[in-house]
Design a protein that fits this description.
Layout (H helix, E strand, L loop, with lengths): L3 H19 L14 E14 L2 E14 L4 H4 L5 E6 L15 E9 L12 H7 L4 E12 L6 H33 L7 H9 L10 H17 L4 H18 L4 H18 L6 H15 L7 H23 L5 H24 L2 E2 L2 H26 L3 H7 L1 H19 L4 E2 L6 H23 L6 H16 L9 E5 L5 E7 L5 E8 L5 H12 L4 E6 L5 H12 L7 E8 L6 H12 L3 E5 L4 E4 L2 E7 L15 E6 L2 E5 L5 H10 L7 E3 L11 H7 L3 E4 L12 H9 L3 E4 H4 L2 E5 L4 E5 H7 L1
Helix pairs in contact: 1-9, 4-12, 4-13, 6-7, 6-8, 6-12, 7-8, 8-9, 9-10, 10-11, 10-15, 11-12, 12-13, 12-14, 15-16, 17-18, 18-19
């Protein structure tokens, strides 16, 4: 069997992926401990500083006391617990040494789960990396002193000291990149910086990857050979030094993969064998999966191995299709191979495609070696003399300036980013099947030493393009309405049959940066990068602060709003004035709507039921924009936070008749949605947006009883996460994100 390691690695990865798909890891096991005061004992395995907060990682922890402590809790077998210390200062030397036994007391926090499609799942991420729980506002109650300083502590302090050297040499922004790519320290990387590198297709620069390990390891081996050392001792020394560097940087999964591959390739060189890239990456993948099978769900693991596999699988095919010689074309083929092979995974994890990534990386990748060498020398010299470190950092700072320029140029190019959304699993399988078929065909033709004719080249290009185009196909019903989970707030997104989009409210009262972390990823996963109509039902914070955030975000990393629609009530409060001023400043068209007005969007008709023109109430809820939305046989009513007089006026204008979907007013308050209203519209389904453990107790029991009496099926975000209703006017399909994730 040729390349058996590849077959074994692929089969193991697919088997594990299927097993976890059928039975995903349980991220709810410790949810009942959220907010509980506890005392925890364990061994300090690691420590770090993030945003001026000191964190400890406790290995083999045990909960020894706490509120409502039971035998079941005290006997829990935990892997690791993250401790966020309170008032611990900003020096790791003041924190307990790694290897010491400590007891801390604080408040437990279960890691938050993703509540919407496309959102980052912190609970799953931490579970993959072996962390079960976080204890915050923690105070150390006891520490068992160690007789000597362990090696892990010295490594931790060296890494921290080098990080502080980087801060002094490079300044805030450049230091973030240097620490990420040389020390594996991504704790202080800003969202803006990560987003910029991702948009340009240069995210790999911010990781300890095979590129870094290869540059470092091969550089050391060549240096030692030039100094007169024999080949085997030089390779052995190179592997030892490179492994030590990996330990210093924390041994992330991409670093482990790179170290295993480097060791295998050096061993092959010593044995006089030709190293095989695909076999090496497969052995590394098998080793990581046997060590921790759940890593198959980790994006970093998958992308790291896919990048190397892309060179092994697609680069020979491109060499056959583009038989041009020279270093430039070699680099072009490698960049194309990685970009094309990773495209399905890039779309799956990030939902967008950086169109300029190939030309950007043609310049960025060759400079990365010089950047790494300069950065390592500057940190080493800066540890003894800061001025010397500043001088030796000049090449690195120049390259970082070039990288910043590449990001700016990429952002200035119109349509440099496509947002096709998250592809279906079947589309990804189809795409990789096409890739492998193309690679096998090219390999067979090369082994026969047949030149590729123009017709064959055209067919291969067609197979390649067709495989990638399948990723953009989304089978949907004509009308989709998604109630996003934004905590204690409201946000509803509608995709219409003619391709236009509408959002009704966007805000939250208890989720920080709700647009960046919940709304934008969700919309991008659906393939949307703009909102045609953004409706503000009223100007309470929990209905509109997300719009302010969206408009203030950079257009390249956010969602563009084309038109903002507000209630036509004459005078606005401070929130309303700020919203309008921001919209005008950002070039967003501002429209106003009142009762009696309607809008046609293809086959979808929207009629406004509230407020009356110029009508003002003391309570802003009563001026909420209420919409009657109809599409063929489907009908939806959106009522904002309408209560009292505003709700009564809406009821006078509404047409009686069965309603398919009711968006319940005011998050399910007992004072809204009276029985008479429910009798008029007889809603088949009701959406209620309310936050988990919200202080108002929404939705109220009285309202839920009225809905039950009306025979309406109720969907609440705090229980189900995001809820999506799709229809063709006759058939209706409803999906609940949290439950659907557990089934998949």
């Amino acid at each position: 069997m040729k390349r058996p390691a590849c077959v074994i690695g692929m089969c193991l990865m697919l088997t594990l992926r299927m097993l976890f798909a059928l039975r995903p890891p349980d991220t709810d096991a410790l949810h009942f401990m959220d907010g509980m005061k506890v005392s925890v004992a364990g061994t300090v395995d690691d420590k770090y500083i993030k945003h001026d907060n000191t964190y400890l990682i406790l290995d083999n922890p045990k909960i020894i006391s706490g509120e409502d402590l039971t035998d079941e809790i005290s006997e829990l077998k935990l892997n690791r617990i993250k401790i966020k210390l309170k008032d611990a200062g900003c020096s790791l030397s003041d924190a307990p040494m790694t290897g010491s036994e400590v007891t801390v007391r604080g408040r437990a926090m279960a890691f938050p789960k993703a509540r919407n499609p496309g959102n980052f799942d912190t609970a799953e991420y931490e579970l993959i990396h072996g962390t079960d729980l976080e204890v915050y506002d923690a105070k150390i109650t006891s520490v068992t002193p160690l007789p000597h300083t362990p090696l892990r502590e010295r490594i931790c302090l060296v890494r921290d000291a080098l990080g502080r050297v980087a801060d002094r040499i490079y300044g805030e922004t450049d230091a973030q990149v240097i620490k990420a790519m040389t020390l594996g320290d991504r704790n202080d990387l800003s969202d803006e910086l990560k987003s910029g590198y991702r948009r340009a297709g240069m995210s790999h620069i911010l990781c300890i990857s095979g590129l870094h390990i290869s540059f470092l390891g091969m550089g050391i081996c060549r240096l030692l050979k030039r100094l007169g050392m024999r080949i085997r001792p030089s390779y052995a020394a190179g592997m030892i030094i490179t492994a030590s560097y990996g330990v210093l940087t924390g041994l992330g999964v991409s670093t482990v993969r790179a170290l295993i591959m480097f060791a295998l390739m050096m061993t092959a060189e010593i044995a006089g064998r030709t190293p095989d890239l695909l076999s090496s990456v497969s052995v590394a993948a098998v080793a990581v999966m046997l060590w921790r099978p759940v890593y198959v769900l980790d994006a970093g693991f998958v992308l790291s191995f896919a990048a190397v596999a892309g060179i092994g699988v697609m680069e020979p095919a491109f060499r056959y299709m583009i038989p041009l010689k020279g270093r430039f074309f070699d680099a072009l083929r490698s960049s194309l191979a990685v970009t094309v092979f990773m495209l399905p995974l890039t779309m799956y994890y990030f939902f967008c495609v950086p169109l300029c990534s190939v030309p950007v990386n043609l310049l960025a990748v060759p400079l990365a070696g010089i950047l790494l060498i300069s950065a390592v020398i500057s940190l080493a010299s800066g540890a003894f003399c800061i001025p010397l470190g500043i001088v030796s950092a000049l090449p690195a700072r120049l390259i970082l300036w070039i990288y910043s320029g590449l990001i700016r140029i990429n952002d200035a190019i119109p349509h440099s980013r496509l947002t096709p959304g998250r592809p279906a699993a079947a589309a990804i399988v189809f795409c990789y099947t096409g890739y492998i078929a193309l690679a096998l065909y090219a390999g067979r033709q090369r082994s026969r030493r047949k030149k590729m004719t123009a017709a064959c080249r055209l067919v291969c290009a067609g197979v390649l393009a067709g495989s990638m185009m399948v990723l953009t196909v989304h089978i949907r019903m004509p009308l989709e309405i998604t109630m996003l989970d934004v905590g204690q707030g409201d946000c509803h997104f509608m995709l219409m049959p003619d391709g236009r989009s509408m959002m009704i409210d966007c805000g939250s009262g208890d989720v920080d940066k709700v647009a960046r972390y919940r709304v934008v990823p969700c919309l991008m996963s659906m393939g949307c990068d703009s909102i045609d109509y953004a409706v503000v039902t009223h100007t309470d914070e929990d209905h509109m602060n997300g719009y302010l955030e969206l408009m203030d975000m950079d257009e390249k990393e956010g969602i563009r709003i084309r038109s903002l629609i507000l209630p036509d009530i004459g005078e606005y409060d401070e929130n309303g004035r700020k919203l309008i001023e921001t919209a005008v400043r950002k070039g967003v068209r501002v429209l106003k709507i009142h009762a009696g007005e309607s809008m046609d969007a293809g086959d979808v008709e929207l009629r406004c039921l509230n407020p009356a023109l110029g009508r003002a109430y003391a309570d802003a809820n009563e001026t909420s924009v209420c919409l009657d939305i109809r599409y063929r046989g489907f009908r939806a009513l959106y009522t904002g936070d309408a209560e009292g007089a505003g709700e009564q006026e809406m009821m006078e204008r509404i047409a009686e008749g069965r309603c398919t979907l009711l968006k319940c007013a005011h998050h399910g308050s007992r004072n809204s949605t009276p029985a008479g209203f429910l009798k008029m519209i007889r809603p088949a389904c009701t959406f209620i947006s309310a936050g988990e453990d919200n202080r108002y107790g929404h939705p109220h029991k009285e309202l839920m009883e009225r809905l039950q009496d009306a025979g309406s099926r109720v969907y609440v975000t705090k229980e189900l996460g995001a809820v999506r209703m799709s229809t063709d006017g006759k058939r209706i399909k409803t999906e609940h994100y949290v439950r659907e994730r557990r089934r998949k």
